[in-house]
Amino acid sequence: MPDFDASALIRRLDSIAALGEAEKQALVALPMQVAELKSNRDIVRQGSRPSASFLMLKGLACSFKVTGEGKRQILAFHIPGDMPDLQSLHLTVLDCSIGTITPCTIGFVQHQALQDFCDRFPRIARAFWRQTLIDAATYREWIVNTGRRPAYERMAHLLCEAVVRLRAVGLADGDGCDLPITQSEFGDALGLSTVHVNRVLQELRGAGLIVFKGSALSVLDWDGLRAAGDFDPAYLHFEQGAEAP
Questions:
Q1: CATH 1.10.10.10 is right for the domain spanning 7-139
Q2: CATH class of residue range 149-236
Q3: What SS3 string covers the chain?
């Protein structure tokens, strides 16, 4: 029996490219070295040349770059089921860093084993390729969100994306999810100061759209939050419905 839970990976890939039972069983047996990491730890660093890719099993992580002045820009949040550095299978040098936000359980798969696995299961190889294309689509949406939407819309859009993505892997109950992202981390993702993040969260609460209790996000008005964030989940390219009610 494997020493990791493949359910999030299976649900993730199945949501974007329907898998057969044989492919699902193969993913359960994927050779993987599991590691536990504390919060705020680098998993891989910009400029490194990894010999393995990793799978998010538990926890929350992010891709980021740091300017010469030491300012961090978060490029993406990563949840269970994601393979954030899958591109390292074909790109020799990483162009960004990936680190934990919460304590994480991750699984490393050696590149040679992953290449052999993809050769044996071409449908899974196509699913991995599709996932990297969806990652690129998500980056494009983040550019628009950060570059052109006002702060209130940016935050609403990001919250909508988080709920829909977590729902796709079974980690949101429809009207909310656990979202342990600090205001500073929201700011690094959205290009806002912590003070500004606090203000827009207060505005979203005041509009009756959301409630945050600790890290627990409850969406009180899904249609209202979607409208506030100009959110259309088409860029996530789900084959099976992961839309929140």
A1: no
A2: mainly alpha
A3: CCCCCCHHHHHHHHHHCCCCHHHHHHHHCCCCEEEEECCCCEEECCCCCCCEEEEEEECCEEEEEECCCCCEEEEEEECCCCCCCHHHHCCCCCCCEEEECCCEEEEEEEHHHHHHHHHHCHHHHHHHHHHHHHHHHHHHHHHHHHHHCCHHHHHHHHHHHHHHHHHHCCCECCCEEECCCCHHHHHHHHCCCHHHHHHHHHHHHHCCCEEEECCEEEECCHHHHHHHHCCCHHHHCCCCCCCCC
